[in-house]
Each structure stands twice: as structure tokens, then as C-alpha cells.
Amino acid sequence: MALHPQTGRPHGHHRDESEPLAEATAQDAGRHPSPGCTEAPCPIQGLGSRAARRPQRGIVSTSSSRVPRPGALMPATRSCSRFIHCRGQPSRTHVNSKRPKRSRIQRCHTLVPDWTHEKRMGSSVKEGLRSELSHLDQVADLLEEEEAARPPVASLEGLLLEGDKQPNPGQGPFFYIGGTNGASIISNYCESKGWQRTQDSRCEDYKLKWCEIKCRDNYCSFREGQQLLFQLPNNKLLTTKIGLLSALREHARTLSKAKLLPSTQAKVLKMEEFFPETYRLDIRDERQNFFTLFDETQIWICKPTASNQGKGIFLIRTQEEVAALQAKTQSIEDDPIYCKMPFRAPQARVVQRYVQNPLLLDGKKFDVRSYLLIACAMPYMVFFGHGYARLTLSLYDPNSSDLSGHLTNQFIQKKNPLYMLLKESTVWSMEHLNRYINDKFRKTKGLPRDWVFTTFTKQMQQIMAHCFLAVKSKLECKLGYFDLIGCDFLIDENFKVWLLEMNSNPALHTNCEVLKEVIPGVVMETLDLAIETCQKSLYSQKMLPLLSQRRFVLLYNGETTDQWTRMGGLRTFSRPPPAVDQPSVRKPAPPRAAPGPLLCASRRSRPLVSGCAPEAEPEVSLCPGQSASSRDPAEEPSPGTPEEEREEDKVRPTGPRGSVHGDPM
Ligand SMILES: Nc1ncnc2c1ncn2[C@@H]1O[C@H](COP(=O)(O)OP(=O)(O)OP(=O)(O)O)[C@@H](O)[C@H]1O
Ligand SMILES: [Mg+2]
Ligand SMILES: [Mg+2]
């Protein structure tokens, strides 16, 4: 729907337009205080104190007894082959059969791959690290016992151990990076572990694949339990505008039907409290509702469902603009070409109530980029991470028709001739934002001290957890999938927090000083956590403590919350009905028949869907042979699938110069 006069056909995909990546400084951005992250009811794991994150030796020793039997993993060459995890208690002899001990320090280095990145920290921090080191030392000791009982390296366990090896040219382990977003950081990380980069996008013998664009082949050839693959195949449930809207609506419906305890009810977020009122324009009744309710006292913002960087966005303020939008939408719907070839139709759009009174920083509009990390999908281990604030260059004027004062995206700001001169002022660290709000608003607005790291952080975490729970039962999961999702929040002048959207493939550029501080730490901890959680899942080790957890805060621990069942030697991951924030509605998962030998891994990994949004985008069947008829009967087809999402279904090359599907700011 090329609705905007200047934009023409909206972009389905876009190339990574940013300047070449600055050399990544392999420096952890440090540990940000998040005092507000601590108190949240299960399953939102408030992990405020380090003590809470790092259980004592006794607790860890429990996990040390949960190691797999030798030969437990039967590797599959294709995900559609039968893949068996045999898990069970080890025999005593396994636990006791110690191998000669390696250096404790070396072990710590192995478990915390970017330990050396912290060497530039101040001495007080070093003190803290020293005591943490000694704790890690104890943990490492216990883990060594586990290690002694493990089978030879044949899977993800090797991801950690192989970090110690000297590179063996041409023999791997290999990693593949598709695209340029964050490439040098990811590459440095992997090379520091002794892995070798392959440029062969079809290489199946990789340990890690990090692609900007999702490609069906990647998911079909994925070897569960042996590889790490960036992006959940159907993350569009969160990361397209229509996907997120549909998921939140469906979740709201489910919650409204659930019999919740009054105390639980009070804690459950309501969509309208954090998500600006939004309408889909690709559904006739819905857009009609919008056209009817529109009046000129309010501004609306119209966005394509799956574009980023502010592309194709425009504001709607007048009846004339609404009439033009109405006519354009109708003409697309009536166009015989699009009727015959709906895949040619422009991307579907939403209109969203424009937050007209944003909080301003020195007169400029801003939004906050934070991260939702799904480090492990089997079980879910989901984290929150701080990012940074993005400011416009020009002063905010709600009546201005210049979009650069309304859209805070870096991509839009880069178009300003003064950008190169003033770019450092367009990205603030969260500490800077916190100081500013303390200084300017704490007294006048009666805010608690460090509002950014207390109230605001907690609200972002609650909203993210709510969104995750909304799609949890529908995400396609396998052990080894992981995802980093960029979440954009707007604060209004009343300090109300709004979620604007979530993004796949978030921008990982480091073209500003603040980004150099923040981004490498985010990427490296993402990889550390993905490796550690996958390894622990594979070997039935307790997830906590997470030795590589630094800046990220655990939001959801599926190990303790979700239900695991083992059937016929096959570990399945069954999920209770949606909202785990309402214990009263949780039901045991229905019994499942033992899988037959032809069971497709992706089918096994398919969630047990208890009900699906009528508006939900149809899920992409990623496994050959899985016909549309095998879809859950509760799922209804979407009235329209946006262009970019259909693009995802195509088999596309993921060469190093692949275009960016996600959001490079
Ligand atoms: N409802 C809203 N009210 C006020 N401002 C908004 C609203 N929605 C979006 N914006 C502004 O427009 C910008 C772009 O919107 P949005 O992030 O939804 O689009 P995008 O094209 O996906 O951008 P991104 O590059 O962040 O992925 C936001 O960063 C924000 O500054
Ligand atoms: Mg976006
Ligand atoms: Mg955005």
C-alpha cells in the first residue's frame, strides 16, 4: 500500500545502510545497576541481588548430579530426522569418575568467555570480581565433576570446551555470519574461541549461524542440540507491527476469559495501558472503525507492518489525509492485479495513536531501545537487557510536518546534514538519561531517585514479559535457537511508558561512542548466555546460577515454570495454557502419544497451541512435508500476509552481504 506520496512502494527489505562498522571494542559495557529489577512474581524472575543470582555451592551441587548418560545424544543430520535426547540420572560411577583437573582459572575463563574484557574495570569492581572469581572457582570445581561424567565432545558441550583449542585451519569449528549487522563483534567473539569463519552460506557443519535474514533452509538443516542459530523462525509474532498487535489482543482475550484470583488480576498488565491504540488497515471492518472514530483533535501515525528505520511512516492529522488513506486502501483492495497476485500487494499497515506529548530531553524527542533476549528456547530462558536512548537532532514541535522531529530513528536523523557533527548527541547511555531525569524532573515531577533504573526498568521488564507470554505458546522452538529482539519504548511527559514496537535483528552498529560501550557487551553476553543455557539444557544441568550473566536480567525461567515430559526416550516440551502469570488457570499439558519414527523434529518442537489468534499471521511451515493441513485446527488464516513476511518463506541466499531484514536503526 504505497500510501505516502513520497515513499512510493514501502520497503519490504532494506540493505544495511549504515556506515562501515567501527572496529568493535571488545569491552563489556559494564554492569548496570538495575535496582528496580528485583521484585516480580513468578514467572518473572526478579533477580535483583547478585546473591540471588548466584546460589550457594550446595544448590549447585544438586545440579552436578544431573548429567546425561554417555551416548545420550543421538545426533541428527537433518532436523526432520528423529532426534533423541535421553536424559536421566547418572550412575554414581559417572559422577565419581574424575578426570585430572584442569586449572581452575582456566576453567573459569572457559565458562565466562569474555572474562578478559573486564580487565579495564576499576579496582573496586576488581575486588568484586575477585570474590566472584573465587565463587566461580568453586562452581567450576563442581562442574568439572560433571564434565568428567560427560560423553566425548559431540555437541553443544563442545562449544565451550573448544574455546581452549588452537585453531585448526579448515577444520572448524565453523561459524557463519549473514549480513554486516554486528558482524565484527560476533566474528571477534567466535574467533576468540578458536572457531573459524566460513563464507559458505550452505555450510551445514557450523556451530553458530547468525543471519540477518531468516532463510527456510537454515531451519530445515538445523541440527538441534549441536548448533546455535540466531532468530526464532516465527519471531514475526512479536517483531512485526501486526504480529505484536494480534498477539497482544489475543492475550488480552485469553486473560479476560481466565478465572484469575483478584490478587493476580491486579498484577496483570492491560494492553491499553502500555500499547498505543492501534488498528489494522488490512482488515475492512477495523479500518472502517478507524475512519469513523478519527477526528482532527488527535494525531495518528501510519506504519507498514514489517519495515524499519521509519521507512514508509507518515502522520495523519486531517480529514483530507484520512480520506486519501481510505481511497488508497480501497483501491488496493479492489485492484484486480492484487486480487490475482496478492503477494504483489504492498505491505499491510497499521495506524496507531500518536503520543503527542512525549517527554523531551533539552526539547528533543527520544525513545529507548532495550533488549529482549531469548537465550534458550528449550526450555525458555528469557532476559531483559538495557540499551540506550535515541534522540532527534531537531527540537520537537507537534505541529511540524518535518518527520525528523517526530521519528527518533537514527536512520532518519542521519539524513540531517548536521548528523556527522552532532551524532554523539543523538545517542545517550541509560546512565546519562538517568542523571538527566534525576536532575530535571525528580523534584518537579516527584519521581523516585533513579527513576530510569527503578520504575522505568521494571515497567519495561513487565511489558516485555507480558509480550513474551502472549506468544510463548506459539513460538517455534528448538534447542539451539536463540533470539535478540530490540524493543522500543516511548516515555510521555507524564512519565507513562509506551511500547512502540519490537524488532528482529536489532541494530548492532557502533558508530557512536555510547554504542561502542553498549553494543559489544550486549552481543557477547547474548552469545555467552545462548551457549551456557543450551549446554545446560542439553545435559539436564540446572540453569542457575548462570555464570555468564552480567548485564541481562532473567525475566522468565522455563526450567522451573514450564512442564517437561519425557516420552519414549524423547524429551518433549509441553506448555501449559498461555499466561503463567495466572497460576489458577494453569492446567497440566494433555498427554501426547509417543512419537513415531517418522516424527519430524520441527513438528515435535511445535508448541501445543491451546488457541490461536484469529488475526495471527499464518505460521511458516519450515519443514518440508509439513502440509498446511497439519496446522493446528484452532488456527485461523490471516486475512492478509504482509509482503515482507511472505518474503521470509522464500529460500534466499544469506551471503555476507545479505540485506537487512530487521532494524538497523
Ligand atoms: N505511537 C507513536 N507515538 C509517538 N511516536 C511514535 C509512535 N510510533 C512511532 N513513533 C516514533 O516513530 C519512530 C519510528 O516508529 P517505529 O519504531 O514504530 O517504526 P520502525 O520503522 O519500525 O522503526 P525502527 O527503526 O525503530 O525499527 C519511533 O522511534 C518513534 O520515535
Ligand atoms: Mg521497527
Ligand atoms: Mg522502532
TrEMBL record:
Q: Where exactly are the transmembrane stretches of this chain?
A: none
Has the keyword Metal-binding been applied to this entry? no
Determine the domain of life of the protein's source: Eukaryota
The catalytic activity, as recorded, is: (glycyl)(n)-glycyl-L-glutamyl-[protein] + glycine + ATP = (glycyl)(n+1)-glycyl-L-glutamyl-[protein] + ADP + phosphate + H(+)
Residue ranges of region Disordered? 1-76, 567-665
Q: Which Gene3D superfamilies does the record match to this protein?
A: ATP-grasp fold, B domain
Q: Which GO terms describe its molecular function?
A: ATP binding; protein-glycine ligase activity, elongating
Cite the entry's keywords alphabetically. ATP-binding, Ligase, Nucleotide-binding
Name any GO cellular component annotation: cytoplasm
Job description of the protein: Polyglycylase which modifies both tubulin and non-tubulin proteins, generating polyglycine side chains of variable lengths on the gamma-carboxyl groups of specific glutamate residues of target proteins. Involved in the elongation step rather than the initiation step of the polyglycylation reaction. Polyglycylates alpha-tubulin and beta-tubulin. Polyglycylates non-tubulin proteins such as nucleosome assembly protein NAP1.
PANTHER family named among the record's database cross-references: INACTIVE POLYGLYCYLASE TTLL10
> This chain belongs to which protein, by name?
Protein polyglycylase TTLL10
What organism does this protein naturally occur in? Nannospalax galili
